[in-house]
Amino acid sequence: MTFGPMAGGQAAWQMMRNASADRSILKSKLKEGTVKRIFSYATKYRSALTFFLLTVVVDSCVVVASPLLLKRLVDDGVLKGKSSLVISLALIVGLLAIFDGGINMINRRLNSLIGEGLIYDLRTQIFNHVQRQSIAFFTRTQTGALISRLNSDVLGAQQAFTGTLSNLVSNGLTLVLVGGAMLALSWQITAISLVLIPLVIIPSRLIGKKLQELTRESFNLNADMSSTMTERFNVSGALLVALYGESDREDKNFRTKARKVADMGIQMALFGRLFMVTLTTLVAVATAFAYGLGGHLAINKTITVGTLLAITTLLARLYGPITALSNIRIDVMTALVSFERVFELLDLEPMVKSPENPKQIAHDNPKIEVKDMHFAYPKAEEISLASLEVAAKKEVVDSGEILSGVSFDVAPATMTAIVGPSGAGKSTISALIPRLYDVTGGSIKINGVDIRECSLEELRKMIGVVAQDSHLFHDTIEANLKYSKPDATEAEMFKACDAAQIGALIRSMPNGLQTVVGERGHRLSGGEKQRLAIARMLLKSPSIVILDEATAHLDSENEALVQVALKDALVGRTSIVIAHRLSTIVSADQILVLDKGIIVERGTHEELVKLKGLYFELYQRQALASE
Prior knowledge:
elongated
């Protein structure tokens, strides 16, 4: 049984794990109501848990039954020459072993059903909750720490039911049954056995403390080595190493870290073996004492030979549960803290969410109205958890207002361009319209409805965005296109690709739409990635289009192709174009010039050039640079 009574090597291993457990966990303080909330997860598995614990109880009873049958087999069968009784009892012992094997299989099945079910419930709940977090949450959260909540903490939480609970019941019942049976057979041997318990527990604690230190250091060393591999084993990292790194230096750096991990592994193996040898030696010494005292009592006819054999067999099954129960508080707290870390994430409310009673927005001919808009980035404590950040230090200086009193209208089926120097707040506006963030003052309305009063899903259905670095998943072209419209047909996909000026290229590829684009689309050029992103946006068929410097990093040839694609994409759609290259937005219906979060100029290209203000200065500078 996975978490049942222990014997032999399994017992020694379990005792080593318990002894090396991190005792600092006992200092943790749980929030009120945590335990009650944990048990709410058990409701779904109430029947399975009941049968699971029943198999644990039955197994514990079998542990005691076998030695008692052995006693009778020797005393009443062997010593009295009753061969029929010996055969009968031997057969019962064999059948009992088969029965216990069946119980173990049932136990394992129930254990897996409960454990994996709980893992599934928690992981899907966390994933769904994290998916609903605002973009601000992801800008501060360390990805590794977040994934750890989905893996390590969820696994630790499920141990509360499949590990800790069954260990408590199994070891507690086994201790009572074994101790009771031993006392009934011989109180003298039982007394000497209990006196020798510190000989087993104290050395295991001392060696376990050292193992705990080594384990913690091993985790850190492995994390450091894994981080190195993660950074180098992706396209961006590999490219950086190829261009700037030296293979010998990289190899030496990794060898150093791998050597530390290997040396730590050797130390842990040696201390682990020392623990095992010490433990088995001490148990053997305790058993020798029992044999010595028991043999003396048997010679004096105080106990029978069968009693001696039974009690020494039971003795081997006494120390495991005692050691396990001596650390049960650590096991319980470890499981509870894992649950609390999961709850901590689940309790973090998304900054941006849909209202309870959302209003409907008309999708046709959308008009965007921005009135007296103010925005400042939220503070760390408002959007994330300190335990999920790389450096959980309190920020002394706030970001301050990024946008101050911004107002403008975008008429249906017209293009509004937003230009200005870096850091003026242009991209912030592009993030506020689809509610990636919420404004801190003023409002944004579409067709007269405040976007905070409508469903996020409905709002984002009508908006298509192409950023300057469009993300593509490490999948096929078809899968990346269908991300915006899962039920798209091949004809629809090629129509969108043709409009985005990339259809001919895809048809020329040996695998066509089944071509894998690579991690972050690195198997495609920058222009090809952007055109594919435009095709994905067109397939969505949004009524509002936002282009955030979509051609900023392209060469002139690719930019020309993307501009042709964008010209078709914007026809009949309300669009906001954020541009660095002013030559791409000279035909805009209106141009907003943003500087330090304030609109300082507005008008058409011709009007702004005549004004000879900031726009004229930026336009002249770029015109000179292109000559």
